[in-house]
Design a protein that fits this description.
Blueprint (H helix, E strand, L loop, with lengths): L1 E2 L19 E9 L2 E9 L7 E6 L3 E3 L4 E8 L3 E6 L3 E3 L2 E6 L6 E9 L2 E12 L7 E6 L3 E3 L4 E8 L3 E6 L3 E3 L2 E6 L5 E9 L2 E12 L4 E6 L3 E3 L2 E10 L3 E6 L3 E3 L2 E9 L3 E9 L2 E18 L17 E7 L7 E5 L6 E7 L4 E7 L1 H8 L1
Parallel strand pairs: 5-11, 13-19, 21-27
Antiparallel strand pairs: 1-2, 2-3, 4-6, 6-9, 7-8, 7-10, 10-11, 12-14, 14-17, 15-16, 15-18, 18-19, 20-22, 22-25, 23-24, 23-26, 26-27, 27-30, 28-29, 28-31
């Protein structure tokens, strides 16, 4: 045997051979009549290499990384191209990134059976814009009615802002404003940019003022059956109610004529608002007639006959022996007098005067 095999062989037989490449086999046989040679050529087909290249993700955001994995058969060497480079083993994995744009990665492998290549493309989308941030703050979160405070705000990654709630309209991305609501209020601000929209809110508590009330009468003292005009004005009130000498719901300010008052009468007015209640009362007194009668004196304090009576003086007041008022009667023949007094308890005293005392007291 010669060529792809060798050695002496029997004149007939068989042998199993496993060539790794195309090989020629020869056999020369000799006998008395000479030598004869025969040959056979065995063609060995070498496999073409195979290759598979893939990415862990084929769509990513800007700044992300991916892992490339590949596997080949019947290849002895590989080389990267495109978004990566350098020699690679026939099988492996490699992380690439961060990626800034859509990229195609190539890999070529070769073996005795030829060459093979594969590619994979990773699509890179722009990274989303950062979402806005919004901060809305009150310098004071609680005020009394009539006071004010500062509302301030700032936003980042935003191009416009819009107010709602207790305020409204377009706003810049930062600023401040004084606010003075009459009731507790919530302010809201929504700011927008490429990354979307964000909102923030702030609540201001307003402490309601207690109501005040001014209540008066045109007269404090009237004759029986007389009339008065009541006047009133309330602030920080939403409703008023009358009681006592009058009744019913009243507006928070006004005037009302009350007639036919026969006796001392107390009028009450209660007004209510967010801050509470207030009540005022006033009394209108009526005059009553008090008839006084007396007997004229006939003698002086020394027992002598009285011949020069000049008149009388009537003293009265609300405390005994402390008289605040006086009526002078200049006619000595009078034996009666009527006083008009408002309701109440009174103490009275009377003095008869001679001309000397009368003159002295008048002086």
């Amino acid at each position: 045997a010669s060529g792809g095999w060798s050695g002496s062989l029997a004149t007939s037989g068989n042998r199993t051979l496993t060539p790794s490449a195309t090989t020629g086999y020869s056999l020369a046989c000799s006998g008395p009549g000479g030598t004869d040679t025969a040959s056979v050529n065995v063609i060995v087909n070498t496999p073409v290499p195979t290759l598979s290249l893939s990415a862990s993700r084929t769509t990513v955001e800007e700044g992300d990384s991916v892992t490339l994995s590949w596997s080949s058969s019947d290849a002895s060497a590989c080389s990267a191209s495109g978004g990566w480079s350098g020699s690679r083993s026939p099988t492996g994995a490699n992380t690439v990134g961060p990626l800034s744009a859509t990229t195609t990665f190539g890999l070529a492998c070769s073996g005795t059976g030829g060459d093979v290549s594969d590619t994979v493309t990773v699509i890179v989308n722009p990274a989303p814009a950062d979402p806005p941030s919004v901060s809305l703050n009150l310098a004071r979160t609680s005020i009394n009615a009539g006071e004010s405070t500062t509302l301030s705000w700032s936003a980042t990654n935003a191009t416009s802002c819009s107010a709602s709630g207790a305020w409204s309209g377009s706003r810049s991305t930062s600023g401040s404003v004084n606010v003075s609501p009459n009731t507790s209020s919530t302010y809201q601000l929504t700011c927008s940019g490429e990354g979307g929209s964000r909102s923030d809110s702030a609540t201001l508590n307003v402490n309601a003022q207690p109501p005040t009330l001014s209540f008066s009468s045109s007269e404090d003292l009237i004759a029986q059956g007389g009339a008065v005009t009541l006047s009133w004005s309330a602030t920080d009130a939403t409703s008023c109610t009358a009681s006592g000498g009058w009744s019913g719901a009243k507006s928070t300010s006004g005037n009302e004529f009350i007639g036919g008052i026969d006796s001392s009468t107390t009028f009450s007015l209660t007004c209510t608002g967010p801050g509470g209640n207030v009540i005022e009362m006033l009394t209108v007194s009526t005059l009553s007639s008090v008839a006084l009668n007396w007997v004229a004196p006939a003698e002086n304090v020394d027992g002598s006959a009285l011949t020069d009576l000049a008149g009388y003086r009537i003293y009265y007041g609300t405390m005994s022996r402390s008289y605040s008022d006086m009526v002078e009667i200049a006619d000595p023949s009078e034996t009666s007098h009527t006083l008009s007094l408002s309701s109440g308890d009174y103490y009275m005293a009377m003095t008869a005067l001679d001309p000397v005392s009368y003159t002295h007291l008048r002086a």
